[in-house]
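In this supplementary section we document a worked example of the pipeline. Step one takes a protein sequence of length 1010 as its only input; no multiple sequence alignment statistics are reported here. Step two produces a three-dimensional model, which step three serialises into structure tokens for compact storage. The input and output of this example are shown verbatim.
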Amino acid sequence: MALAAVLLPGLSQNEAKAATGASVLNEDAILAAQGLADPQWYKDNIPFLDTPDANINGVYYYRWGSYKRALRYTTPGTGYISTEYDQPVWYSGKASYSGLPDAAGYHILDGRWLRNPTYMDDYLNYWLRGSGEASARSYSEWITSAAYQRYLATGDATHLKADLPQLIALYNKWNSNFTQNITVNGTQTSDSLYWQTPDRDATEFTETSMRSTNWGSGGAGFRPTINSYMYAAAQAISKIATMTGDGATASTFAAKASALKAGVQDALWDPQRHFFMHVYNDNSTNSGLVGTRTTWREAMGYAPWAFGLPDAQYSSAWQYVNDSQRFGAPFGPTTLERVHDFEAEQAAIVHANVHSSSSASNGQYVGQIDYSDSSATFTVNAPGAGTYPVTVYYANATGATSTHYLTANGAATPITVSYAPTSAWGSFSKAQAVTVQVPMKAGANTLKFAKGTGFAELDKITANPYFDYQAFPATQNHDDTNCCHWDGPSWPYDTSAILTGMANLLQDYPAQNYVTKQSYDTMLSRFATLQHKNGKPYVAEAADGDTGDWVYDASDFSENYNHSSFNDLVLTGLLGIKPQANDTLVLKPLVPDNWNYFALQNLPYHGHTLTILWDKDGTHYNQGSGLQVFQDGTRIYQSAGLGNATIPVAAPVLPATTTRLENVAANAWTADQEWFKAWDNRTYTATYPKAFASYTSTTSNGNRCRSANNPRCVQAYDSPLKAIDGYIGYDRMPDDRWTNMGSTNSTDYLGVDFGYTRPVNELKIYTYDDGQNVRAPQSFDVQYLSGSTWTSVPSQTKAPATPAANGPNEVTFPAVNASQLRVVFTPQAGKSVGVTELESWYPQKTVQIVNKNSGLNLSVKGAATTAGATVDQETADSSLNQQWQLEPAENGYYKIMNRNSGLVLGISGASTTAGATALQWGDNLTPDHLWSVVDAGGGSVLGEAIGSRHPEEVVRLLLPQTWQRPRRSSDGALPTSVKEAREPPRSWRWRESNSRPTVQNQGFSVCSSP
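The serialised model returned by step three reads:
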């Protein structure tokens, strides 16, 4: 439909014309004020925000900055991923490039609002097909539902539909954690649910795990989190299958989702606690706990609402979120409730009576504790020996002070609990309470209340010995001491889920009396306030919710911790942007009533650009009054008030197909291994590309501390390798740079050795400038190694012309064939130079591989997209299944990636024997995925072939027998291990075809695809 500008009442024609531009925010001024380096990246990618709350504004831009830091280029063929830390993580797995799945859902939800789709396209491919696939379920994850939510924002279902087999495969990986007909409180149910350990649920030490015999890895059970994730994944798969026309799969997964919802609501909901709880399974660490629900409410019980799982009648759980005795805290919700109610009527009662009262907790209380043998005995668990507060709620209408004698674990001397007089028997209130300190032992404790002097009635006691147990270091040394206890600290990971769930509750559920729009605004504002340190925006791992102090905050490790959401919470929660699968935009804003204005400029949505303005009286932006929405510069909606709206938008515009560029200088794997050896002294063989420099600073940058295993810290130093590790960061800490501080040379260089000759035509140098001693260079020159001589590359075009500080300096030039490049820097007088990343980008090569003997194309049998599918030859066609990407890999090898499946060519079982079957597999960095193109005559090399420097060249495709590239002997003969490939059916020839490079094999020809 055509969407024309609407002339607002009282708006002149000139004002209306100006309004259609929908550009009211000065992006350059905003970025400068926020102090963000590389401003063009933000202008190219993010939606710009302006609200009356400077606190939210500042954290919004900071979190885009921390998100950008976490975007890591790994290797050609894998591309970008999003990491949690600005530094490598040793427990992520050797082949993972430090990717972790537990917060991947947050990465995708925030990343869906970036204009460049490459980042999330790569990231999803990494988890579903690439080197992250093997570890995608190392932690609980919600990758599938986040991928679907991303589609709702982009409107582009192309990748999502192609990913359906991989999404189903990921779902099925969790089958080993699925239990049918689980037992709850000694009764077998018909509910079938997924189990997980707290540790693998990303919650490490919790009350749940501490109750088990293994605090670190024990306490497995059926959790609201993992089952909500699987529910949302099943829903998403059902919807995607419907989009592909696969009705059977759609029905199957819709039924799975329905069954999981029923199981969560039936088995995990505690009707007395009004909360979703963990239920222990029969794991050996759960002695005495099997089939029982946990005692205390944990913040993860709000996870179901983040995925829209519960029905409306379960909304009563939200009565606890802001309660200062439960989860409420000045700087964000706690991860465990402070206290739990132990109802007197459920205690072991001797010679006393249970009565009903509308003012009593749970509607009942215990009276007539009037005799020498009267008592009420509670059982309270504690994580360790110590003295813990216990609050007693009572009634005492004697008109004088009464007492009970409290005996803990049969102690010889009881504690006297004194009760001031109250107004009436059987009447209770929060004010009628007294707190006593009770010594307890580790494990179960009996707390017996017996008659003392006078008379008193018991309503309940409250306690929680687990709250904040061992959570805080005695002294903060910024080394993550006491990490990671989720038994009280405020944790951004959980806060994000709670805010997501609260927004869904307010926007999509019937009205309830537990939380309001103001509740959301207050919690979001507190979350923003928390994300500061020393007066500047900052996020680490966890904080004290009462003081706002970061408690898990390892120096040179925890900074900018990308393990939560914030920007998606602002966009979808606060501003109420609810992406849709159809051609509409739904707005359900939760902004404070006293906000008279806000603006969101250049929001990518369905391939269009939206700007949303709220200007109550039109005086703030001078673009007209009320709420306005612009699409691609044209106003498509106006309303005088700020309320819910469904707005028609234009049909999605899909991204244009472009040639993919790949950074052939990146070596994230070697950078990680070098980092890891500081902790476990591991040995490794560095792979190409390798970084080198004429001089590197020898001054320490300070401590680098290993998270969750302290106090283990090492000194951090500048390194050439950090300039090709895939991270771009301009902070002093965490350190991620090479500098020549301390050099007395008039010039110094930083370079990259590719390990073999390849064509290059572009270099990007991201300078590091601290504004003091390390400054942008006065000038620089790009050189390549020609033979044994360093030569300036010809016709260098530099953008910008003068070296820029803390940003990219791009140099393009006619392609040269080089094994090494370097940048020679001339520093400013008396200053040093630094680089945070050195990149060399080159177009990806897509080919067809045609067997010369048969004339058939190399294909994956049946166009399968599953790992392990056989590679065979088939009649030539133009399908993606017969197109292969040649991805530069380490030490001169190549990965051969099928465009249809995204999987790489390998050998079954990584066999090194003749006759082994070729197949496709996920890119798990094993040697059988690396192929070398070896000269088979004519003196040709692969670099020349890609550049089509000769019309007909012969090369051979070989599986490497070792990690070293095969070399010819002095007489030109191939090594024995590869001689069997010399017969014609296995050698390769490149040729020109239709002005596009093609490769022809005397077994296969490799034809360039458009």
